[in-house]
Amino acid sequence: MLSIKPLSLSPSVPSNSRVLMLLGQLERLNREAMLADAEIGRQITAKILHLIQTQEKTRKEIMSKGSSGMEVILATLEVTGYLYICGSCVNDRCVCVPGGGRRVGVFVSKGGTGILLQLVLSGSKESPPSEELMLQLHSLLAKVGPKDRKFGVKARLNGALNVTVNLLKQNLQNHKLLLPCLQVLRVYSSNSVNAVSLGKNGVLELMFKIIGPYSKKNTSLLKVSLDTLGALLKSKTNARRAVDRAHVPVLLYIYQDWHRNDTRHRHMLIRKGVLGCLKNITNIKLGRKAFIDADGMRILYNTSTECLPVRTLDPLINTSSLIMRKCFPKNRLPLPTIKSVFHHQLPHVPAGGPVAQLYNQPLGVDDVVDESDDNDDVETENDTENEEEDKDHHARNDDIETDINKLRPKETHSRPFEELKIYERFFLELSEDFQRFIFDNPKSASPLAPAPTPAPVHTLDTINITKDHDEQELVQGMERMALEGTGPQGGAGAEEWVPDTALLLPLHDPDLYVEMVKSTRSVPQYSEVAYPDYFGHVAPTFREHILERVYGVQRTKIFQDIERLIHPNDILDKVVYDLDIQSCPVIDDGESLKFNSQFESGNLRKAIQARKFEYDLVLNSDINSNHYHQWFYFEVSGMRVGAPYRFNIINCEKSNSQFNYGMQVLMYSVQEAISGRPRWVRTGTDICYYKNHFSRSSIAAGGQKGKSYYTMTFSMTFNHKDDVCYFAYHYPYTYSTLKMHLQKLEALRTPQIYMRQDILCETLGGNSCPLLTITAMPESTSNDQICQFRNRPLVFLSSRVHPGETNASWVMKGTLEFLMGSSPLAHSLREAYIFKIVPMLNPDGVVNGNHRCSLSGEDLNRQWQSPSPELHPTIYHTKSLLQYLAAIQRAPLVFCDYHGHSRKKNVFMYGCSLKETVWQTNISATSCELHEDLGYRTLPKILSQTAPAFSMASCSFVVERSKEATARVVVWREIGVQRSYTMESTLCGCDQGKYKGLQIGTRELEEMGAQFCVALLRLKRLTSPLELRNHAHLLDVESDLIETRCKVSSPSTYVLEDEEHSFMEEVDYSAESGDEPDNDPDAADPHDNRLSDSESNNHRDSLT
Ligand SMILES: [Zn+2]
């Protein structure tokens, strides 16, 4: 009950106001409620009502802040409501309330809903209840209810739910009363507990008495009933009830009937309402089954197809498509096992984790689908008990490290220096005295000076035996791929049509490439060479724009998929390539494309011709793993010119992709290459990426059941007859390419350049992991010079820990070429630093076409905390190098690991900041005591000013829990490198700067690598106290830092959300099949959506 305060006047209200006088009278009556005369009350309220209805001024007075007019009216309503239930005055009084949204808000905030509900209850006790009163009360509640977040709960606790339901049951023919009651019921039903209780009370059946086939009468009743029904069916209990009572075919019948008769589309909302009911029923497995049994797929497919020409019917098509996708029976991925088709025996199997699981999986267990997939529809009677409130609080930011001890430098003395001392040999420059060198001129070392270390050709060659027979196979492979009618065949044939790229690609050499391939060890023992890697890639000079998405593409593709179910006879289902079969059939009947990917970095496992020009492609898992597919690289031949080919990669795993935001696939045409255009070009139309109907085993989905794979689809017409074309996820860069490139770089060495190539270690697969040292030779052997030489700060760079992120290698290529360049900047840079570079941290992964892992089946960028020397040798030894440096007090000034990012645009960095991490959490108490140098922001800030592709806005310096074992975080915490970064380059393109609207190419990536070097030079000037004075103008960087620092404190800048915005077309990549749509684990997964691709731990469950 309201306590009635003395009437207070708003200052703006003139005291002689008539309405105030009347309100005053009312208030007195309320106080003496028991004695009051109903007739007087009625008269007064009638007068107030009249004033309110006729004078805007009066309305304002009553509603104005500080006025208690509304309270008085409510109090009157309450008091008299008890006393004169049947009084017609209620009617009048009530009408005081409605009005604009704000007035309803005031009414609610003053407790009006409760009073109305009370009146409903007390009114219901009369027999028979006053129809007029109930009509008025429900009309009011229909307006007030949606504004009151607690409405559903209040109505239930108060008992009004049943009153309304009984009223409905007794007045089914009384449309005047029915409408407001239904409107109130719709609001009740949005509360999940109410929905269950109403369902038990027979409200579903009640709704079906109102909802019927096409009729022009009472459409508003119909609309509200459908909405109410839709709300009720969100409860799984109700959905099951609807299935049990065979309501699914009824709904389908009603939908078709409206579809047929509503020819002028006047009642789209009713049709959408019916679909809404079906959509909710099909959230449960039983519902999906009932839908299929009732021929729902065909019905919705046909009606949707008929709706297609009318754009305004899109909401119907989209909802239908959503329902069909959910109900589409789950298919089995067409594989015998999801384990990689190739196997590499590990020296020892880790004790736990996904690899151990893989090794311990009993023989004969089907890992492609889950047996239990079909009965996991566990439902409880009460659905969700927690009501409106305590939902959306948790989702965000739960990955931020909050343990302050994990953010402080780690005090480790775990490795005695004796153990690290063996790494001294990788740092000869730190003790080099150059006594053997003759400096006959202060500017250059004598050409007689021996190279500081053995030539890399030699070191790399010693790894491997000469593969005589392989070489032969190689030649044969080349011949096999040789193009018909393009020059003579035979041993020397190749040379005839190798494009001469020496001028355009001075650092590429096809012959040298083939030499390098011979010593590269792959698990499948590849003997073929892919043409693009052999010929090389000359970046095109034309611009490649980010594709604008064509309206309706996704829908069209999905409908084509649904057609497979509806017209199964149209499907060829012809396997044309299959690595799981020993002989891997290559069908050559002229009717099908020929596929191949048995070359370095290739990873196509199977190709199935679905329709004449449509192919389903399955990618191979990473070796010793049963998932991680996204990267692809394969060859196609036997195409028909001008035919509209569609390719579907059907076992992608990520929940979204830049393929939905304008990224195209890369294609390399051999015909183009031999015509003088050897290059990868962005290609493909009708590209989209969406959740498909191939079920994904929980074994490969981090234990989650009921998940699906994703399809990446693109269409393509070929321009050349007898062409051989290659498709790739991104510009390939193989391990053999790296080896070739390093040799060519060696040739760039001048007497001023100190360059050394060491072999850091051997990988599990028997490939060597190169380590480069680049700096400037000292100008002379004088003590000063030698001292300057040895004491240059170190910069430590690495890249390509993730094999699928080939862009990282292209950035590294840019860095290396800049460092070996002859520009004055390059020279200054070499004089400023000693560069230690591991250009490929995961050679085995690259060679074998993995997307993310090494041969150990693990993500190497999750092993930095305690890498195993046997299982993760490249990480173990790289970390040891850094530990050695820390031990001799020479920890690098900058550490940066290059990566690629599949979901964001631009190039950006992740760094580590204790303060910024703490700012994002609630442990503010400690934050004021933390002191931190802002230096970690300088390098990215410089890059944002100098590198066109770089975007400061995308950078983040927060330490996440899921990243604690990444290079960036471990080097920061354990080695104590303040400027420890991950640099992420987009796979797609840029949405800012000079390259805005363009897809990224190798030229831009290489430029990024070069700009990184330039930025290091500026950093040098800023960090050297002596130089600082001479470069005062650069101090603006520091002031910029302060500015950005202020921005950072806002929690929303922690990491950008998936920065992509929605399109005109409502794109729905992930129609859920198992769960409620708002329960989509992908959508809720912060790692999937907002974190760095390279570092994000998509399968963290499986890693625990
Ligand atoms: Zn990565």
Automatic annotation (TrEMBL):
<dbReference type="InterPro" id="IPR050821">
    <property type="entry name" value="Cytosolic_carboxypeptidase"/>
</dbReference>
<feature type="region of interest" description="Disordered">
    <location>
        <begin position="366"/>
        <end position="410"/>
    </location>
</feature>
<dbReference type="Pfam" id="PF25571">
    <property type="entry name" value="TPR_CCP1_N"/>
</dbReference>
<dbReference type="Pfam" id="PF00246">
    <property type="entry name" value="Peptidase_M14"/>
</dbReference>
<dbReference type="InterPro" id="IPR033852">
    <property type="entry name" value="CBPC1/4"/>
</dbReference>
<dbReference type="GO" id="GO:0006508">
    <property type="term" value="P:proteolysis"/>
</dbReference>
<keyword id="KW-0378">Hydrolase</keyword>
<feature type="compositionally biased region" description="Basic and acidic residues">
    <location>
        <begin position="391"/>
        <end position="410"/>
    </location>
</feature>
<comment type="similarity">
    <text>Belongs to the peptidase M14 family.</text>
</comment>
<dbReference type="GO" id="GO:0005829">
    <property type="term" value="C:cytosol"/>
</dbReference>
<keyword id="KW-0539">Nucleus</keyword>
<dbReference type="GO" id="GO:0008270">
    <property type="term" value="F:zinc ion binding"/>
</dbReference>
<keyword id="KW-0479">Metal-binding</keyword>
<keyword id="KW-0963">Cytoplasm</keyword>
<dbReference type="InterPro" id="IPR000834">
    <property type="entry name" value="Peptidase_M14"/>
</dbReference>
<feature type="compositionally biased region" description="Acidic residues">
    <location>
        <begin position="367"/>
        <end position="390"/>
    </location>
</feature>
<feature type="active site" description="Proton donor/acceptor">
    <location>
        <position position="984"/>
    </location>
</feature>
<keyword id="KW-0862">Zinc</keyword>
<keyword id="KW-0121">Carboxypeptidase</keyword>
<dbReference type="GO" id="GO:0004181">
    <property type="term" value="F:metallocarboxypeptidase activity"/>
</dbReference>
<keyword id="KW-0496">Mitochondrion</keyword>
<dbReference type="GO" id="GO:0005634">
    <property type="term" value="C:nucleus"/>
</dbReference>
<keyword id="KW-0645">Protease</keyword>
<keyword id="KW-0482">Metalloprotease</keyword>
<dbReference type="InterPro" id="IPR016024">
    <property type="entry name" value="ARM-type_fold"/>
</dbReference>
<feature type="compositionally biased region" description="Acidic residues">
    <location>
        <begin position="1057"/>
        <end position="1083"/>
    </location>
</feature>
<dbReference type="GO" id="GO:0005739">
    <property type="term" value="C:mitochondrion"/>
</dbReference>
<feature type="domain" description="Peptidase M14">
    <location>
        <begin position="731"/>
        <end position="1020"/>
    </location>
</feature>
<dbReference type="InterPro" id="IPR040626">
    <property type="entry name" value="Pepdidase_M14_N"/>
</dbReference>
<dbReference type="Pfam" id="PF18027">
    <property type="entry name" value="Pepdidase_M14_N"/>
</dbReference>
<dbReference type="InterPro" id="IPR011989">
    <property type="entry name" value="ARM-like"/>
</dbReference>
<protein>
    <recommendedName>
        <fullName>Cytosolic carboxypeptidase 1</fullName>
        <ecNumber>3.4.17.24</ecNumber>
    </recommendedName>
</protein>
<feature type="compositionally biased region" description="Basic and acidic residues">
    <location>
        <begin position="1084"/>
        <end position="1104"/>
    </location>
</feature>
<feature type="region of interest" description="Disordered">
    <location>
        <begin position="1057"/>
        <end position="1104"/>
    </location>
</feature>
